Amino acid sequence: MNILQNYIPETTGAVCINSASLQQMLSVLPMELFYGVVEQSSVGISITDPKANILYCNTAFCRTTGYKRGELQYRNHNILASQQTPKSRYQAMWHQLSQHQPWTGRLINKRKDGSLYLAEVTVTPVVNGEGQITHYLGMHRDISEQFALEQRVHNQKAMIEAVLDAAPTAIAVLDEHHKVVLDNLTYKTLRTDLRGNEPYTALGFTPGAQRPDRDQLWPLTIRGRQRWFSILIQPLSELNEEASLYFGDGKRPCSLLMISDQTERRQQLEQSRLEQLRVQVEEQTLFSAIRETLDVAMVQSQAPLNMLQAALRLESNPDSRAAIAIHTALEAGHQALQRLEQYRQAIKVEEPTRFDLMSLFADLHDMLTLRLEHLDVLMQLDIAADLPELFTQRTRLLTALSLLFDRACQAVTGQSAGQLKLCAYQNEQELCLEVHDSGQAPAVTATHRLLQPQTDNGGKRNDTIELGFAQNIVNDHRGVIEVETSDLGGSCIRLRLPLCAIIREDKK
User: Which CATH number is 3-144's, of 3.40.50.300, 3.50.50.60, 2.60.40.10, 3.30.450.20?
Assistant: First the structure.
């Protein structure tokens, strides 16, 4: 058979090439056309004998290998071997070819100039009518650039995945149906903690239906511990891989979802807020003590001034030395009172604000939590529903309740399974606030005794507990403070505040 009669086009896809089928093909196609197709093919084509000696190679094959046609003819195909391809690859190839099966794979070949390239090779056996392999048809393509691009994409993908997996933020890409198509390790871990539930579903967030506020925090209980997360979603577009959309837009909408654990930041903010509240409470206590001290000083100073005024009226001679001395002392006393009043007026006074009691009790509870965590104490809240909004000095009221709870905490200190309770309810036209404790001390019958400064276990005065502050607030609102035995076994302090004094009608 003439060598040219063994030329076959690159579209041949048979398991092996039969010589009879080839003869039939040649009878249909002109030899010149057949030859032109093979020579002009962009794929390197080679034909070898059963021992892999090259009988023919086309122009593309020569261009790929760097050899001239004459340099390759009758040379064995191993002239292209680079010794970089594992022997097992060649063994697998020859084993498959011996089974009259074509083989496709990648080989590291060497050009004439010694440079290496990655070749994608398809070798097809040519079988005669007796079932013997007479030739091999080789299809040869240099895919070095394609492989480099694949590796570059793979490396970039691996690098991006490594960066994403190292990120503390849970990141996921959602398709148009809100299904996760890509996620990082943090997102996978969070999903595992949620027993396979999608984190955004567990958080109660619906992509597409909601646009989360950047500053909004979403609570989630994980393994019995409450954690807080922020959600950020960013619209994206992904290239569609469907061939039918090749000439179309080719883009489909998707979303980038980022879920960040903000528990530590929220705890820091909450700690800062509570610290600010404690500072405000301490300031209110201090300012109240100073104002009370000034009030006492002004009252105590008024008596001798009245006596001096009376003595001046009894003096018959206004020009006498005694009258002049009394008058001078009286003027000095009035000036001192004026200075005391100026000092009193200069003390910061909180402006009334509108607030709801639940927020006040929440702040009080948070302030007490750190204080009670070292005590074996159970704190209860018994808050009536639909309590009115108040319009008064919020920090002063918070301070008063905090001081009352300080006293209650002292009452149950050292007690096993101590109890504290805060009750709030409306009784006709009064708001009633009660602080109960389970202290072992007998109930105090006189209110003034309970409101006296106490001492700690070391016998030193505890200056932070000035319960007269509570009495001052009650007095300012024309209310009443009561003391009785609590159903918990200790004391109950009740603040009764008229609603007319703590509610402003214009709620707008």
Answer: 3.30.450.20
